[in-house]
Amino acid sequence: MKKDEVxxxxxxxxxxxxxxxxxxxxxxxxxxxVQSSGWEPENIAMTQAWEEVNEKVAAARVLVQSGEIxxxxxxxxxxxxxxxxxxxxxxxxxxxxxxxxxxxxxRRLSDKMLQRYADAFKISKDDLLHIK
Length: 132
Prior knowledge:
The protein is mainly alpha-helical.
């Protein structure tokens, strides 16, 4: 791709403020770095991906509010974590973290364990206990 052909579609998730580095050929035939604000197919894919993430977070929120899962599952989705990553952050086995996603088990967690989860999600313990 030539330097002047690098896509500059400013209709992206960051309203054109976020630039990516791409490589293109300049007039002398050398590869140079060129800033690009994105291109339409990439922007569409990113928008769809974020919509899916937001749907999963909203679904988890509804399940927490209905008492089917604990806030651990909600914040795991919201923080874009998976079970293995969260288990690693809190120093527990995956089966233990999965068990903590049950409301009855979550209610019996110690303050120390709740604080570990809060630290992993970078929120306060109060926010962990009361989803806003």
